[in-house]
Write a structure and sequence with these properties.
This protein is an alpha+beta fold. The chain has 11 helices and 25 strands. The protein has helices at 10-20, 30-42, 114-128, 149-153, 224-238, 284-305, 334-346, 389-405, 426-439, 454-460, 485-501, and strands at 46-49, 55-59, 71-76, 98-101, 104-107, 136-141, 163-166, 174-179, 181-190, 193-206, 211-212, 239-248, 254-255, 259-270, 273-276, 314-319, 327-332, 350-354, 362-374, 377-386, 409-416, 444-448, 465-468, 473-474, 482-484.
Length: 502
């Protein structure tokens, strides 16, 4: 039984539900790409798929519109696939469980993927139906959420349109006409593990709100990876720590809500001396009491500090072994663990500067969004954004200098250009005119700190005139993501009316 049968517009929500049945997290877009190609084949539509998996579907103009210039509609097929720890859904293999609550459409225990599944649903509904429109070139890219890799790889030679409506925005009535450029800076810290003795514990940062590292970065929400570094640094002042494992975040462009570390406690401060596990005076009870007391104190401090911003944060600290006995585990030795902890502790995050040209707009920011350990290195992925290219490059240089001081290696991936505001835009003028006629309201033209693919399209097609729109969404890239049903219908009605006039 379909969950969205009774929602309007029916054809849009039909295709949205079809999309939600197919796993399509970033890096796992093969099945959704296949679905789009099959859609085009079944309707005898001209289509192209490149090696990256990007799909272009073309539908000729409807009757009476053959003399109108073509219009490109564009969105991306991947979603930020996150779920609650207790959720049984495997987001690599399973579809989503959709939930309708009055005007809200959500997914149970997971992100919804309204960003940017709604663009696909709008596009497919348009191509499937008998609507009035000029020639439509629907472009659906892969892996936007991990650095706009699809748009970067896209061959634009099949495209003829000089006007593009990007459908990757989350506020109805907002007409995006510019965005920040960005990149991902990756850090790599080498390590070596050896068998060591100590008390095996786990420390985790939980309960944060998270959100999109562009759209929500100005809300000063907590970053779980940075808080983990802070907590471990505090603990290492009183305790000797050997790192066993580190983990945090799900994507560089999502503010991380969870980060955790498994550590061996191999010594502790006792007055003016340090008691080591290999010495006879080491007390497991004293060591654990100090560990728990410090974690409780840090938990109170974070709750108080973030009370008005992200007050549900909490630190969970447990021993892995119920017996709380001394274990022998593979771990990084104390001095090398201290180097890694210090590096985590100095990682900056959040807003670095605000725009003077456009009040309220974040100019430059960064977000450590991924923390992983494998075989021989700790890797950290950081999203860097700025509306000023020189500021973006300067920040990347600062991070590379910081890495050099810590003996870490770096590389820069997924760099994409900003989208410069275009003073004269016939497309935007027409879109604003239609919006005023339909809703008797003055729409808002805005640039944003988040990245959209328009910048990459314009870099390949310099004459391209583009605007980004979309229905109301909240809490994208989180398990609390929601899509407004009524807004989805209004934007659909607006899109149909707009296409009649272009």
């Amino acid at each position: 039984m379909r969950a969205l049968n009774n929602l309007e517009p029916k054809d849009v929500f039909y295709f949205f539900e079809e999309i939600c049945r197919i796993p399509h997290g970033s890096g796992n877009t093969g099945m959704i790409s296949d679905y789009l190609v099959q859609f085009a084949k079944e309707r005898n539509l001209v289509h192209f798929r490149d090696e990256a998996g990007n799909v272009i579907i073309i539908k000729e103009a409807s009757e009476g519109y053959s003399d109108h210039p073509a219009v490109m509609l564009q969105g991306h097929m991947d979603m930020v696939a996150v779920k609650k720890p207790e959720c049984p859904i495997d987001m690599e293999k399973d579809g989503l469980k959709l939930v309708v609550d009055k005007d809200r459409l959500m997914a149970e225990g997971t992100s919804l993927g309204g960003d940017d599944g709604i663009a696909i649903a709008y596009g497919l509904a348009l191509l499937d139906g008998a609507y009035a429109h000029p020639k439509i070139e629907l472009v659906i890219t892969v892996d936007e959420e991990v650095g706009m890799d699809g748009a970067r790889a896209l061959d634009v030679s099949p495209l003829t349109a000089k006007r593009m409506i990007n459908l990757d925005s989350e506020e109805e009535g907002i007409f995006l006409s510019g965005c920040a450029g960005g990149a991902r800076v990756n850090f790599y810290l080498d390590y070596e593990k050896k068998l060591r003795q100590g008390i095996l514990c786990e420390v985790s940062i939980n309960g944060l709100k998270g959100g999109h590292s562009g759209e929500e970065i100005n809300k000063e929400r907590g970053n779980a990876i940075c808080f983990l570094g802070r907590v471990l640094a505090k603990l290492s002042g009183k305790l000797d720590i050997c790192i066993c494992s580190l983990w945090g975040g799900v994507a560089d462009n999502a503010i991380p809500v969870l980060a955790k570390a498994q550590i061996l406690l191999t010594g502790y401060e006792n007055g003016s001396s340090r008691q080591k596990v290999m010495r006879g005076e080491f007390s497991q009870q004293e060591c654990l009491t100090l560990f728990r007391h410090m974690c409780e104190k840090l938990d109170r401090e974070l709750k108080q500090e973030l009370d008005q911003k992200d007050g549900a944060v909490y630190i969970q600290a447990n021993t892995i072994d119920i017996s709380e006995s001394i274990k022998e585990e593979n771990a990084i030795e104390e001095q090398e663990s201290e180097r890694i902890i210090r590096f985590l502790n100095v990682l900056p995050h959040g807003v670095l500067s605000m725009s003077a040209a456009m009040p309220g707009l974040v100019e430059t920011s960064l977000n450590p969004g991924l923390l992983r350990m494998d075989g021989s290195e700790v890797s950290i992925g950081v999203s860097v954004r700025s509306s000023i290219d020189s500021a973006k490059k300067a920040l990347i240089g600062q991070l590379q200098s910081m890495a050099g001081l810590a003996g870490a290696k770096t590389d820069v991936t997924g760099e994409y250009p900003g989208w410069m505001y275009r003073k004269d835009s016939l497309l935007r003028d027409k879109m604003l005119e239609i919006y005023r006629k339909m809703y008797y309201e003055e729409p808002t033209v805005r640039a944003i700190h988040a990245g959209v693919e328009c910048g990459l399209f314009v870099s390949k097609m310099p004459d391209l005139d583009c605007v980004s729109i979309g229905p109301n969404m909240q809490n994208i890239h989180t398990t609390e993501e929601e899509l407004s049903i009524s807004s989805t219908q209004r934007v659909w009605n607006y899109l149909l009316e707009l296409l009649k006039t272009l």
